[in-house]
Amino acid sequence: MQWEIAAGYEARREQHYGDRIISCFVKRPRSLPAMLSATCSIAPEGEAIVCDEVRLDWREVEERTSRIAAGLRARGVRAGDRIALLLRNRIEFVLAFFAAFRIGAVTVPLSTRYQTPEIAYALSDCDAAMLIFEADLLERLPGKEDMPPLRLIAIGGEARGAEAWEALPADVECRDFAPREEDTAVILYTSGTTGRPKGAMLTHLSLINSALVFCRCFELTEKDRSIAAVPLAHVTGLVANILAMLASRGTLIILPEFKAKAFLDLAEKERSTYTIIVPAMYKLCLMQPDFATRDLTSWRIGGFGGAPMPEPTIQELAEKLPTMKPVNCYGATETSSPATIMPPEEMIARLSSVGLPGPNCDILVVDDHGAEVPRGETGEIWIGGPSVVSGYWNRPDATAESFTAGYWHSGDIGMMDQDGFVHVLDRKKDMIVRGGLKIYSAEVESVLSDCPGVVESAIVSKPCPVLGERVHAFIRVDERQPGEAEIARFAAARLADYKVPETFTLSSDPLPRNSNGKVMKRLLRERLAAATRA
């Protein structure tokens, strides 16, 4: 099986990024500014963004972002410059993103859960020209000596050394820059097995294709209303929420912070039709005592990804919310979000699969030598197509290692069945998925190696019925014998909170290693499972 070609979504093969030959939608905007301009021209009075008490139509979005773009230019930001955003889910995130691409600048969203060293690394690595941040995060910013010279713009209060967001818009409107399709529009930092995050370069082409894939597969139109409950700074929030609504001329409804009751209140009040959240969020919604009395009949598509959805949760959703179709989506930052999407009518019958390759997406399952394996056999999943990023920022070594002829090596072990559905069976990379947030063990282990009293560490996942997985640390300590609280405080000062180990096994004994000297994490997971059962 495969996704059928629908009217308006015809595709053809094209050459991009040098030697890549990829299938692309024929009818597509040639840049994000062009997509914004088309939406604002076609549906100027359509409701565009809702956030708390603020409601903007597309004409107002066009006017506001034009003035913000002019303000950015007046402050010296030029095409290709990087603008970092350290913002929670709020309307200014969307307006800043739109304004940045209207002048050809590159947006660099940063997680507000980052700690000072993580922020410093990202700002320095991308050589940011501007940082737009929330004023209450000022104390978390690096010192001037630890980040490039940049202009600071504060939102939500005064912050020393920063200009207020309210002063940014200019009195004049801005003429849009015309970027090339292959120009980078967004840099998203994703943790790697080396412990140092890499900046994935999402282009205008990759972002537009992904937005159109959501529109095609979920049949999104101007009548759809999407709640952004996951962080807008992550690829799902950026593409599945912001850009999918821009492409379909629908309405983006921003939830500042996910709380099950607040989410359900908003979904009911705003008559939400579509969202993508992680499985743990669905479970928390179902646990609300008044869930069955809610009027959620407008909710037709409930996408999920980042972790498997437990079968009991899917069955409970089918019983209590029959008008909503749960849909599995599989992808990554490097694929600009969706690589596979489960056709809604197939979801219940194929719970073990993550769906079919999306339109224009080409998936290979290969062995250790890069040879494609027959259907039904396992191997590493490689992903190609226009949604795949052009590479990693300033990392030609990592790009060469992770890409072959435009195919990104996912690091996931899986297989494609006889019907063409993809199954993800295991992770080749040593990664933990906590509530949909990806954590690479090497990054955490690298931080713990600097902790006084820690000789060596190994990070493994600990099963969790709500979040899927949590972070557990096996640590060999020296004669100082630091305690769990001390080690956790050390990690919390250097890592985002979701990466910090929550449980520990401390010992003075060496960690188990194989003949090649590698830590045998399989044995550690078995020990943890045995201890948990006991």
Structure summary:
This protein has 13 helices and 28 strands. It is globular and about 65 Å long. The termini are far apart.
Structure description:
This protein has 534 residues and is α/β, with parallel strands linked by helices. It contains 13 helices and 28 strands. The strands form eight sheets. A five-stranded parallel beta sheet has the order 6-5-7-8-9, with helices on one face. A five-stranded mixed beta sheet has the order 14-15-16-17-18. α1 runs antiparallel to α2 and α2 packs across α3. The longest helix has 17 residues, at 58-74. The mean pLDDT is 93.
Layout of SSEs?
Blueprint: E1 11-16, E2 20-25, H1 32-42, E3 47-51, E4 54-57, H2 58-74, E5 82-86, H3 91-102, E6 106-109, H4 116-126, E7 130-134, E8 151-155, E9 163-164, E10 184-190, E11 198-203, H5 204-218, E12 225-228, H6 235-248, E13 251-254, H7 260-270, E14 274-277, H8 279-286, E15 301-304, H9 311-320, E16 325-332, E17 337-341, E18 356-357, E19 362-366, E20 379-384, H10 396-402, E21 403-404, E22 407-416, E23 422-427, E24 431-434, E25 437-440, H11 441-448, E26 454-464, E27 468-477, H12 484-492, E28 503-507, H13 521-533
Parallel strand pairs: 3-13, 5-6, 5-7, 7-8, 8-9, 12-13, 14-15, 15-16, 27-28
Antiparallel strand pairs: 1-2, 3-4, 10-11, 16-17, 17-18, 19-20, 20-22, 21-22, 22-23, 24-25, 26-27
